Amino acid sequence: MARTVAAFKVDYFQFLKPDGTLVHDQQIPALARDLKRLVELYKLMVLTRTFDKKAITLQRTGKIGTYASSLGHEAAHIAVGAAMKDEDCLAPSYREYGAQFYRGVKLTDVLLYWGGDERGNDFEIPRHDFAWCVPIATQCLHAAGAAMAFKLRKETRVAVAIVGDGGSSKGDFLEAINAGSAWKLPLVLVIVNNQWAISVPRSKQNKASTLAQKGIAGGLPSIQVDGNDLIACVWAMEKAVNAARQGKGAFVIEMLTYRLGDHTTADDARRYRPAEEVEQAWDNEPIKRLRAYLINQGAWDDQKEEALNVECKEWVQQAADEYFDIIENDPQPVTAMFDHMFEQLPHDLVEQRALAERYADDGGHH
Ligand SMILES: Cc1ncc(C[n+]2csc(CCOP(=O)(O)OP(=O)(O)O)c2C)c(N)n1
Q1: Is the C-beta atom of 165 inside 6 A of ligand 1?
Q2: What are the tens digits of pLDDT across the range 211-250?
Q3: Which of 144, 147, 182, 311 is the most buried (most CB within 10 A)?
């Protein structure tokens, strides 16, 4: 008879149910009683969603080039930001604005980036976070590299990468797990599993029953949480970040959520996704859920909601106005696309840069 040499399980955590009530069969994290903090996090979730709506409008009216919506991911993203310290390092992909806003990235920066202006990548705060990363999953290795540096320098800092369900199929993600495991790095890998990688559903991505178990295969503690439950997401992130900071090594968290919008403004998800699936996903969305909990706890009401909506619209409009002002009155030169990658430009790019400059100088005629 065969001897079992390895067995594993993946624990799933949910504390706040879709109807906004707490589960009964789990010890509830202290955050559930910290209504002041929950209200602050709720406000950021609403701001992020208000920003998202505006950004799509700006794209539709030709004011920015394209845009990747974060609709439905607010709990997962904001939890990542909320659990990190300023000195930690975030390596996002391209839609995790909630995490970035929490860490100090300006709304205007996001608009500049999607407007094709390189200055959007150059955050004043947080200076040591990575910019957006569109090549899928490569940010996992950037984070592993940062974590390696923190370890070598004996700094108590943690690097966090966020990757999608599709990205978790990439070698880069698996290599980051391996590096985190072999070198016991202060690294947290967060899979935001929103069920779709553009038009590829989770069921076609991979036959494993969870994506978290990829971390276990690599020797890392790995859990799955309800990614629409802010309390579960913050709790899991704090657990992982604290362990990494204490020298216990890397951690993988799979947050289960749903991409309620199109992949980007260049996509039309109605062509490949049944409307009923999206409709059902709205029942689980994170903002409604937290609002219901806060109202039940007497920490929120309609009046506060109305005031918050007005405030968020004003902040977002201010950011849009600032963006318009920059692109109209201080546009970047065409050569800017060469100026943010290398300390010293390789010679072939020096030539291309000169060509671009000449092209712009003669009005684009040659
Ligand atoms: C290396 C690489 N291959 C392919 C693409 C094209 N691409 C852009 S987004 C995307 C799907 C990513 O899905 P997922 O990782 O689940 O993240 P989500 O967009 O759903 O947040 C792909 C294949 C890319 N950007 N980079």
Answers
A1: yes
A2: 999 999 999 999 999 999 999 999 999 999 999 999 999 9
A3: 147
